[in-house]
């Protein structure tokens, strides 16, 4: 028998190829496990080709490593068949490990099929040499090679199945497993080669017509390595892309969750907002219908919050609201919902067994709010008015329940605050009236039902008219002429004050332009700004647009803001007022003396005018304290170089006193009532005519 030898370098190379093919197989099984749809079959097909080429290359390089006393060659067709068997075997292996489960019987059956395939590839490849006489195989070693093939296949399938998921250190585990699998595959191959017996007179029938020649081993090696490396790199790059895509998807999911949270929760307290509350009410109502029981909707409004906000500023008010929400939240059960739906308005939704249970719960909310709050270095005392609507009984929709609870809350406020009130049908008329008023107010904005009345201002010394204050009126189709007290609070609450305020500003500038053209160039028109208007981002632009549209000099317009509004967020107010001042608009601090002032900020505010509140003027004749306050305000204004305007002048004594103090301008019913533009001018002309004889006598 002929004794062959092996090229050590090719043996080492075959082992390297086997390890690389094993690692590629393990990596591709991971890609298949995470792929979806048609991508699974594409990865499986590509993986079968790459892995099959790798295993077959190891086998072919191992055969090229064999050295016999005669030239060797390989039949092309039989060699191609061995490659096909390798590809099919590897495809079967990848399909098997891509299954959700791999029970032991299936693993054993798969090991037999794959082992048979690899053995068939090997011995088909050996047959490609077409040895004459044929190769004789040692039965023991032949059987051992088959057992090794089956055992190696079983181990490979088990390892690939268990390492297909991306876990920590999975690549290191795959590397170690690839070495074990490579050694097993090489062991099977060289055991099979050792089983071959060549007769002394043997020669290779494929040496003349088959694959042969120097450099074939290099060609096979380079080709197989290229296929394996391309497959491996494609897998790694795809895995990295998938990982980045997963990170991006997680980021988008998180962003969507945050956006959804922001859309459904109050940004200040983190509580559910009106939108989420409506959904929770709907769910609770459905649960009551299906399971019985009842639910209570408690509308909680804070008593005394506005004075705290006015006295200490919005920052302190915001902190107090957070403290209130935290205290109320601590008393909740997991199935209860606490929401914030407005400035100092909270709503508590609770499911109850008996309607009477709502009584004790409402009492507890009132007591909780009545306890003092420690906010920064201040101890603050407020209370709560709670309105309660029950389901079933007080409404059939979330909106109706909320409206009725709101009506009950206003009833509790009317009863003296710091308490609670259950909804009663008699309260419905007020709630419906408010709802109708809101609808009418929206129609009024669309149909321009508002009118401006003008109250004159006079020079305190000469008595000459120096301008007017524009005052809003609503010409309601059914109710007649309504004063601001009837609708401004609702307009503020719903945000309709913004379009209303813009209309007032534009109309006042239009009318002032008419008077300006008539020769009253030294007059000023005063317009009140609400707190919501002043905080609105478009205020400065609206003022500039109105002045530009009517070609009115900026100093012909005076904007009046209350002292409380100006001081609530003094730094932000400073910025807005500075922009208006730079534009040339006059600025007046209205109702001065009634709110919380900071003289440090007051001297920095770019104001031109202080307006003394009518509350101080009204009791000048009878209250020494009011007289002292007015005297102090006038002295302060003069020291700061500001014009002083007193409103609410109704008697000669008041007029005389304020003039002596040094007020620059006066307005009030004694001097002139608010009138439409035509009536206003008629009064002004009469007043001027009355002054003319006095001037002539003087």
UniProtKB/TrEMBL annotation:
Name listed for the protein in its UniProt record: cyclic-guanylate-specific phosphodiesterase
Cofactor(s) needed for function: Mg(2+)
A GO cellular component entry from the record: plasma membrane
Catalytic reaction equation(s): 3',3'-c-di-GMP + H2O = 5'-phosphoguanylyl(3'->5')guanosine + H(+)
EC top class, as a word: hydrolase
Listed SMART domains: EAL, GGDEF
SUPFAM superfamilies given in the database record: EAL domain-like (SSF141868), Nucleotide cyclase (SSF55073)
TM ranges: 6-28, 40-66, 78-97, 109-129, 141-163, 175-199, 219-237
GO biological process, alphabetically ordered: cellular response to nitric oxide
């Amino acid at each position: 028998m002929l004794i062959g030898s092996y090229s050590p370098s090719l043996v080492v190379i075959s082992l390297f190829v086997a390890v690389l093919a094993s690692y590629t197989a393990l990596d591709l099984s991971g890609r298949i496990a995470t792929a979806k749809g048609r991508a699974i079959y594409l990865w499986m097909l590509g993986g079968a080709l790459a892995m099959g080429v790798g295993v077959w290359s190891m086998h072919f390089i191992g055969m090229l490593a064999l050295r016999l006393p005669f030239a060797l060659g390989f039949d092309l067709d039989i060699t191609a068949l061995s490659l096909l068997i390798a590809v099919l075997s590897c495809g079967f292996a990848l399909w098997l490990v891509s299954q959700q489960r791999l029970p032991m019987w299936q693993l054993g059956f798969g090991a037999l099929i794959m082992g048979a395939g690899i053995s068939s590839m090997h011995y088909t490849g050996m047959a490609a040499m077409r040895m004459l006489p044929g190769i004789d195989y040692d039965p023991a070693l032949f059987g051992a090679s088959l057992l090794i093939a089956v055992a190696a296949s079983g181990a490979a399938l088990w390892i690939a199945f268990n390492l297909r998921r991306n876990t920590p250190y999975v690549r290191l585990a795959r590397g170690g497993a690839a070495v074990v699998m490579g050694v097993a595959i090489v062991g099977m191959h060289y055991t099979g080669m050792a089983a071959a017996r060549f007769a002394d007179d043997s020669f290779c029938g494929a040496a003349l017509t088959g694959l042969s020649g120097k450099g074939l081993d290099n060609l096979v090696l380079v080709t197989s390595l290229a296929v394996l490396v391309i497959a491996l790199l494609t897998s790694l790059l795809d895995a990295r892309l998938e990982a980045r895509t997963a990170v991006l998807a997680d980021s988008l999911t998180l962003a969507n969750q945050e956006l959804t949270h922001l859309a459904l929760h109050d940004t200040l307290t983190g509580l559910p907002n009106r939108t989420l509350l409506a959904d929770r009410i709907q769910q609770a109502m459905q649960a009551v219908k299906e399971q019985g029981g009842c639910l209570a909707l408690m509308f909680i409004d804070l008593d005394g919050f506005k004075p705290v906000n006015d006295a200490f500023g919005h920052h302190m008010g915001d902190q107090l609201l957070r403290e209130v929400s935290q205290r109320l939240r601590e008393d909740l059960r997991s199935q209860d919902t606490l929401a914030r739906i407005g400035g100092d308005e909270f709503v508590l939704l609770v499911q109850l067994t008996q309607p009477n249970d709502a009584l004790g719960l409402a009492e507890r909310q009132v007591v909780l709010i009545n306890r003092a709050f420690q906010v920064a270095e201040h101890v603050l005392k407020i209370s709560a008015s709670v309105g309660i609507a029950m389901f079933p009984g007080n409404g059939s929709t979330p909106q109706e329940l909320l409206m009725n609870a709101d009506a009950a809350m206003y009833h509790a406020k009317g009863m003296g605050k710091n308490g609670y009130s259950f909804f009663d049908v008699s309260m419905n008329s007020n709630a419906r009236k408010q709802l109708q008023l809101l609808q009418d107010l929206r129609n009024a904005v669309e149909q321009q039902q508002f009118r401006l009345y003008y109250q004159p201002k006079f020079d305190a010394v000469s008595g000459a008219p120096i301008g007017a204050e524009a005052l809003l009126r609503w010409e309601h189709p059914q109710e007649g002429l309504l004063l601001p007290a009837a609708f401004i609070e609702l307009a503020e609450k719903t945000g309709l004050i913004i379009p209303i305020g813009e209309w007032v500003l534009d109309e006042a500038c239009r009318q002032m332009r008419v008077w300006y053209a008539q020769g009253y160039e030294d007059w000023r028109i005063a317009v009140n700004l609400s707190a919501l208007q002043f905080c609105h981002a478009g205020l400065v632009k609206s003022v500039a647009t109105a002045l530009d549209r009517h070609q009115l000099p900026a100093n012909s317009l005076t904007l009046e803001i209350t002292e409380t509004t100006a001081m609530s967020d003094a730094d932000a107010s400073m910025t807005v007022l500075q922009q208006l001042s730079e534009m040339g608009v006059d600025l007046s601090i209205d109702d001065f003396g009634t709110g919380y002032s900071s003289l440090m900020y007051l001297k920095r505010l770019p104001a031109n005018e202080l307006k003394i509140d009518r509350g101080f003027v009204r009791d000048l004749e009878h209250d020494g304290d009011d007289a002292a306050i007015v005297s102090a305000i006038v002295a302060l204004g003069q020291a700061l170089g500001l014009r002083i305007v007193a409103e609410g002048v109704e008697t000669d004594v008041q007029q005389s006193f304020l003039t002596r103090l040094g007020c620059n301008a006066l307005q009030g019913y004694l001097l002139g009532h608010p009138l439409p533009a035509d009536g206003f001018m008629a009064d002004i002309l009469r007043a001027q005519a009355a002054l003319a004889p006095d001037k002539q006598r003087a």
